[in-house]
């Protein structure tokens, strides 16, 4: 299992209604049959010391494998990534992560 | 439920053996009885286009509530945060996140 983190920095516009109502359902519909296990959306509300959150929205995508993610991105990337400008001008920081522990 | 994300940027030293073998067990021992549900550690391996991952390690802490996290941080913060210099010189980006969806 791997986890792909997509992190949208604070600042630029972000249409949460479109994101939750259209974009994420599209992501789950296209990618769940291709090895996407879970897509957890979180919204930044602040730091522990009361400052603004650096990232306004993050999504944590758990996949069977890096290979499954690569194939899914290749097959549906144009549709899914092409949808991003409809809800934000932010440039997401995306990274692939290993899970070094058994889940705990 | 809330999710606290702790993200260690790439660059500075990070002793993964100490982190997994000592620090995370300490976190779970102190905070699980105080409302910590899950602590998922991930290690950045790169970006989809083959660049280095911006964050070398992230931990995703799921809590009952922001209040539970605040109380746990107040009660055990000196011990837990005081342990951080033993495994890294990186300054973590920490933020509190809401979960705008039911889990999907």
Question: Could you please describe the fold and organization of this structure?
Answer:
- Two copies of one chain form a homodimer.
- By secondary structure, chain A is an alpha+beta fold.
- Chain A has one domain (2-103): Alpha-Beta Plaits (2-Layer Sandwich).
- Helix content of chain A is 33%, strand content 33%.
- Chain A is built from two helices and four strands.
- In chain A, strands 2-3-1-4 form a four-stranded antiparallel β-sheet.
- In chain A, helix 1 crosses helix 2 (66-83).
- The relative contact order of chain A is 0.32.
- The A-B interface holds A 3-5, 16, 20, 24, 28, 38-48, 53-55, 58, 60, 66, 69-70, 73, 93-101, 103-104 and B 3-5, 16, 20, 24, 28, 38-48, 53-55, 58, 60, 66, 69-70, 73, 93-101, 103-104.
